[in-house]
Design brief:
Number of helices: 5
Helix content: 55-70%
Strand content: 5-15%
Radius of gyration: 36 Å
Strand order of the largest sheet: 1-2
Region (Disordered): 18-48
Biased composition (Basic and acidic residues): 24-48
Largest sheet: 2 strands, antiparallel
Shape: rod-shaped
Amino acid sequence: MSYIREWIESINREVADASLKAQAQREADEQAQREREARTRRAQDERRASVRLRIEQHRLELTRRRADTLDQQLARWWAAQPPDRRNRGHGFEEIRCALQGLSPGAHAANPALSAALRAAGWRRTRLRDTNGEAWAVWWPPSVTPDAPRSPGKAH
């Protein structure tokens, strides 16, 4: 009956080997899962840090903009304009939105901005199209509004 005992022992060894392999595979899978979770956590932390950084940069930019006078904002905006935009008229909404970072529409009248534009030498004229519609255009100091350079509807 020794052959039966040997057969049972060989089966036990195979079961033990399979059990060890399964245990090793489970441990490897668990380790891989822990590593994936750690990578995911790091990526989430980096995204959160990136969002916090953008929020803080935006807050600082808004603080700086609030601290700037309209004259400073106007000078900075004008200095950033490409040459082709310096030789045409600009709509009031276009200027207001560029300075305050807002979308056009809600507050068309802004006496402080009008005063800042006039103080900087800008001139306001009204243009009419072929349909009789009129709109205001602000001309930079370097451009003579008597001979406008076809701005199109400037807003």
